[in-house]
Every structure is written in C-alpha cells, then in structure tokens.
Amino acid sequence: MLTPQPFFFLRHGETDWNRERRAQGQIDIPLNPTGIAQAVAARDRLRHCGIATVCSSPLQRALATAQIVNQALRRPLVVIDALKERHLGAWQGEVAGADPPEWLRGKAPPGGETDAQFLARALAGLNAAIAQDGPVLIVAHGGVYWAMQRHAGLDHAAPAANALPLRHDPPGDAAAGWAATVIG
User: Fold this and answer.
1) Do the beta carbons of residue 42 and residue 56 sit within 8 Å?
2) Are strands 7-11 and 166-169 parallel, antiparallel or unpaired?
3) Which of 37, 55, 111, 112 could form a disulfide linkage to 129, CB 3.0–4.6 angstroms apart?
4) In what order do the strands lie in the sheet with 166-169?
C-alpha cells in the first residue's frame, strides 16, 4: 500500500536511449542535452511548491535530474536505492517495437526482476521517500511510476513523461483514488 501523504513525482529527463526507445532498465545512461533542458524547466516549475526533501534513484539520469532541480530548491537530497528502474535482465538495451514492452504485459525478463519483485521493491522505495520530511519530491523512472499507478489507482495508460512534474494527493473522504496534477 502507498503511504497516504501528498508528494511530487518527477521522471528523469530524456536520455539518448529514451529517444531511441531502448529499454534502459538499470543500465546507467546519462541525460542528453534535451534531458538537461527538461530538468531545468522542471526546476523552474517546482521552485515555489514548498518541497522539503528531494529523494532520488541512484541511477545517474535520475540523480542528475534531481541535482539540477535541487539547485533552486536547496533541500536535503536523499538517494534511495529501491527507487531504481526495474532490472530488465537480457532485455536491457533492446529497442522497443510497436507493441508495449513484454515486461509491461507481465512477462519476466530473463535474468531480471519479476513483476512481483519489482512492484514490492518500487513500492518500498516510494514509501521510504514519502516517509521523509514533506512534501517530498521523488525523482525516479517510468517503471517506478508504473508501479505507483498500479497501487494508487491512477490511469495505467498515462505514463509519466520525461521531466513533467506531477503532484499526487491521496484519496480524500469523497475521492475513490489518488489524484495526479501537472505542476505549472
């Protein structure tokens, strides 16, 4: 279960592998120039949101995005290993076809994490981040967002775009599920 606290989520900026539609998984790919510009734009959008703590995956595409955003926020930056992208095993580096990737359809990658392993780890990482002084900004990956969507009852068809800041609010008395709002 996702801890019912408001938080912000930011998927890392673009990498060359995002542009090429390559499965990055836990391969440590850096931001490209577009990704750096996206992180700067996200920084400007998040500047006045009252964020108290920034939590990040240790993979450089997420950590660099968090560091760029934190240039304006100047808040504690906590690196949480469990916020890493899903380990896609033998599928890491492969170019995606027209259909959704096999791992999004429930297939376990050879040598990688199963759905159950990844969902448990990602949820633990999200809850570890949400437990920090808040409101918290979580900077992570598309797969981590997918895991959150599954547990928070958000639209599964709407992946997090690169460096698009989103605020997430837990269900209220009248609300059936979590609400996600684009910042800026």
Assistant:
1) no
2) antiparallel
3) 55
4) 77-79, 53-56, 136-140, 7-11, 166-169, 179-182
* Domain range summary for the chain, segments of one domain joined by +: 7-182
Query: 9 and 160 in contact (C-beta within 8 Å)?
Result: yes
Cα angle 158, 159, 165 (rounded to 5 degrees) comes to: 105
Domain 7-182, CATH class in plain words: alpha beta
Neighbours of 95 (CB within 10 A): 9
Q: What is the pTM of this model?
A: 0.92
Closest CA to 137 of 37, 61, 59, 43: 43
Number of residues written out for the chain:
184
Question: Based on the number of CB atoms within 10 Å of its own CB, is 54 exposed (0-12), middle (13-18) or buried (19 or more)?
Answer: buried
Report the C-alpha gap between 151 and 101 in whole angstroms.
Answer: 20
Place of tokens 């990040």: 56
- Known catalytic residues are 12, 85
